[in-house]
From TrEMBL:
Protein's UniProt keywords contain NAD: no
GO BP: nucleobase-containing compound metabolic process
Alphabetically ordered keywords of this record: Hydrolase, Nuclease
Organism superkingdom: Eukaryota
InterPro entries xref list: 3'-5'_exonuclease_dom, 3-5_Exonuclease_domain, RNaseH-like_sf, RNaseH_sf
GO cellular component: cytoplasm; nucleus
Residues annotated as domain 3'-5' exonuclease: 75-198
Single GO MF annotation: 3'-5' exonuclease activity
Protein name: 3'-5' exonuclease domain-containing protein
């Protein structure tokens, strides 16, 4: 059972402790850009050896309220035992350091069932952009038995990959994340999601997926292409990546237009 203890509340942020599976996590909940900037500076400083070696793994999650067209209400990040819940819906501004952080191709962002996360951040009031989609650990996490986890729940993935149980209730996932004061259950849900993603990403050496240049090519279609001329024809070169295989598509623009 996860327990949440509030350590400090100020006009800028809340600082919580979450005790889960014998581990104490420090969680900062805030809508203030200055607090986010300080949190990132601290994490990058204490993890600088991983940053230099391009092995920084970041558990990332996004929560929203309502349907698939709703923008992100919160962004949660986890590095080590320190987690951040940034309340985008109530933030007046976003620090440049966060924008730079999310656009750094040397960082490896990981999560679960996250195919909408990047789009949700972009559609938020602050228009946050990521250099590429975060890795969905359902596809890349490894188990000793070689189980297929592509349709597995977060609970199943965590149990098979990390060996302990967590409970992520759907009613919490579908609750009001636009609330100015998040409940203990919401804080625990967002934190556990990002923390477990970090642990599995680190264990599976997720940085190798991006450093190899294969998964690093996962960007929106219109952003990864170039035009070239072959035999006086204009050709669109498009690279797609699926299951660690690169497909190269050469499309004759003249034929397409015709």
């Amino acid at each position: 059972m996860d327990t949440v203890t509030t350590r400090k509340i100020s006009f800028q942020h809340e600082l919580h402790e979450i005790h889960t599976v014998g581990t104490e996590l420090s969680v900062t909940v805030t809508a203030k850009a200055s607090v986010v900037r300080e949190w990132l500076s601290s994490r990058l400083y204490f993890r600088q050896q991983y940053v230099r070696r391009k092995r920084l793994v970041v558990g990332l999650g996004v929560q929203w309220t309502g349907g698939s067209d709703s923008p992100a209400d919160t962004l949660q990040l986890c590095v080590g035992r320190r987690c951040l819940i940034f309340q985008l819906a109530h933030a007046k501004s976003v620090p440049k350091k966060l924008r730079t952080f999310l656009l750094d191709a040397s960082h490896t962002f990981v999560g679960f069932w996250n195919h909408l996360d990047r789009r949700k951040l972009e559609s938020s009031e602050h228009g946050l952009e990521m250099v590429r989609d975060p890795l969905d650990l359902r596809r890349y996490a490894k188990t000793e038995d070689g189980d297929d986890l592509t349709q597995a729940s977060v609970e199943e993935i965590v149990e098979k990959c990390l060996g302990f149980e967590v409970e992520q209730r759907s009613e919490i996932s579908m609750s009001n994340w636009n609330d100015e004061y998040l409940s203990d259950d919401q804080i625990a849900y967002a934190t556990i999601d990002a923390r477990c993603a970090f642990l599995i990403g680190r264990k599976s050496r997720a940085w190798e997926r991006t450093a190899s240049g294969v998964l690093g090519l996962i960007v929106p279609t219109l952003e990864f292409h170039r035009f070239t001329r072959i035999d006086e024809r204009l050709i669109l070169v498009f690279v797609s990546v699926r299951d660690d295989k690169i497909d190269l598509d050469l499309t004759d623009i003249h034929k397409r237009e015709g």
